[in-house]
Specification:
The chain has 557 residues and is α+β, with helices and mostly antiparallel strands. The chain has helices at 10-66, 73-80, 117-124, 165-216, 231-315, 321-401, 406-480, 489-553, and strands spanning 87-93, 96-100, 129-136, 139-149, 155-164. A five-stranded antiparallel sheet has the order 2-1-5-4-3, with helices on both faces.
Length: 557
């Protein structure tokens, strides 16, 4: 499940990184510029007032020194001429306003008013005075005073030039507003540029982030639609495309391998089931062989007893031909029974040989299926190794990408863990396959020994059949030569001895056949156990394959 990631977006971070220094710099520069301009403005005001005051001083100093100064229209007009520049001019006689452009609230000139005593004292000492915040007529002024000398070089009065502080403050505010507007325009222009650049950088990163989220959700069908003019981001886009292609190929291969593995597991399970059925049939056949060998042993014992009786009959042959004929008939019946038993044993042996051959063929087919599984497991292991290598490359690229590559690094770590899990499962499957192969090889060896034992039994059965044919011929001769039984008594005695040896051999063969049957039964039990173990391992492989399918089924190609 995708978790909501809290934090600042790349887009917002880039805009902030561009705007914060810009705004702070603009504020600082505006403050410094306004301060500097204000200081320059004040200096300019004082310079202007100084020039005006000195000009007025020179203008009226001539009249003072020549004794012609008067409060006439020309004098007032001269002072009023500076009002165009918002400058007030006053000529003091002593510290009393004598000629001035200043007017009171009634519109009357402020003639006869006094200046500040400290200012007048400074001018009397021959110094110029400049101050701000001087209140004249209820208003604050920037002022400049300079002495006016008479013909004797004494201070006659003062020339005053002043500008309203409100006018200067308005000029300062205009400068401040002008600078603020200029700074705002510059900030706005750079903000637009920063937003455009941030968008060009953030949009492809956002597209990459959304695409990586889809990869993390297992969605491999969508194509990455992102372009960038930034070299590192272009490389990240290319690497992401390559990662998607690699994941598609890897998951597709794992899907195919998992399907092949599932098919192989089904075939192994099916063939193992057939092997169990065949082994059950072999067990039944072996039981029949054991039972038949017991019957043969019983018949051999009976024949031995009859051979002994036959010896007695030979001694009494001349006395009781009927008894001999009856004994011959009994021998014939026993011989036929024994021949029939031998045919059954031979048939069972042939069936056992075919069954053992079928077991060998089934086990060989099982081995071939196991080899196919081994190849599929090796393919899965190779794919896991390639996926681990791709995960390592992706982690390196994510580390290079820094903060922007953290999500990429998480996906790469998930891919690495999936590859390691696939490798571990592949190793488990290899171990199971090797165990199945060992058990199958042991089963083949046991089947070969069983086949050899049955072939030996067939040889014994053939010998026994030959002896029974001899016995049958002897009985026929006994019956046909009953009239000359006396002459053939010695030959019959010889036949009796041969019959005794043959029955002894038959007993030994029966015992060997029984022992072989027991060995075959034990081998069948071993094979059955091996097949059961194979079925259990097949179930484990099926579970592992289902887990693998579940793991890769997360991805949608």
């Amino acid at each position: 499940m995708k978790k909501n990631q809290k934090g600042i977006s790349v887009y917002l971070m880039q805009v902030l990184f561009a705007l914060i220094p810009l705004v702070v710099g603009a504020v600082i520069l505006t403050f410094l510029a306004v301060k500097e301009i204000n200081e320059s403005l004040v200096d300019g005001v004082y310079n202007s007032l100084e020039i005006t005051a000195k000009a007025a001083s020179e203008y009226f100093e001539y009249d003072v020194q020549n004794g012609i100064i008067a409060q006439d229209d020309d004098s007032f007009a001269y002072c009023d001429s500076f009002k165009a520049n918002k400058v007030e001019v006053t000529i003091f006689q002593g510290n009393t306003r004598f000629i001035t452009s200043l007017r009171n609230d009634k519109g009357e000139r402020n003639i006869g008013t006094k200046s500040d005593d400290a200012i007048w004292a400074a001018c009397q000492s021959g110094k110029d005075v400049r101050k701000n915040g001087v209140v004249i007529g209820g208003k604050k002024y920037y002022v400049y005073y300079t002495p006016i000398y008479d013909a004797n070089g004494d201070v006659w009065g003062m020339a005053f030039a002043g500008e309203s502080q409100e006018t200067v403050d308005n000029a300062k505010r205009q400068v401040l507003m002008s600078n603020a507007v200029s700074a705002a325009v510059i900030v706005a222009i750079f903000a637009i540029i920063a937003v455009i650049i941030a968008k060009l950088v953030a949009d492809p990163i956002k597209a990459l982030s959304n695409f990586m989220n889809k990869l993390a959700e297992g969605e491999l069908k969508d194509e990455l639609k992102a372009k960038s003019h930034v070299k590192e981001i272009k490389q990240l886009i290319v690497s992401t495309d390559e990662l998607q292609d690699a994941l598609r190929n890897a998951i597709g291969t794992v899907h195919s391998s998992a399907d092949l593995l599932a098919q192989a597991v089904r075939e192994v399970d099916e063939k193992t089931g057939h092997n169990v059925d065949n082994i059950s049939q072999i067990n039944n056949a072996v039981s029949e062989v054991a039972e038949t060998s017991q019957n043969v042993a019983t018949s051999a014992q009976s024949m031995a007893e009859k051979a002994i009786n036959l010896g007695d009959d030979v001694e009494r042959l001349n006395d009781n031909v009927d008894i001999l004929r009856k004994a011959s008939d009994e021998i014939q019946v026993a011989n036929n029974d024994a021949s029939e038993y031998m045919n059954i044993v031979l048939k069972s042996s042939n069936e056992s040989v075919e069954a053992v051959k079928d077991i060998s063929d089934k086990i060989n087919a099982t081995n071939q299926a196991v080899n196919d599984i081994t190849a599929s497991v090796q393919m899965i292991d190779d794919i896991a190794s390639q996926t681990q290598l791709l995960s390592l490359n992706a982690s390196i690229e994510a580390a290079r990408a820094g903060e922007a590559g953290k999500g990429f690094a998480v996906v790469a770590e998930n891919i690495k863990q999936l590859a390691e899990s696939s490798s571990e499962n592949a190793a488990k499957i290899k171990d199971i396959v090797n165990r199945v192969t060992d058990i199958s090889n042991e089963t083949v060896a046991v089947a070969e020994r069983v086949s050899e034992s049955i072939q030996t039994e067939k040889g014994y059965i053939s010998d026994t059949q030959g002896k029974f044919e001899i016995l049958s011929s002897a009985v026929d001769q006994s019956i046909s030569g009953i009239n000359s039984i006396s002459d053939m008594a010695k030959e019959l005695n010889t036949i009796k001895n041969e019959l005794t040896g043959a029955t002894n051999d038959l007993g030994a063969i029966s015992e060997e056949l029984g022992a072989s049957a027991q060995e075959v039964a034990a081998s069948c039990a071993t094979v059955t156990e091996a097949c059961t173990d194979t079925q259990a391992r097949t179930e484990e492989m099926r579970a592992i394959n289902e887990n693998l399918n579940t793991a890769v089924g997360f991805f949608k190609i």
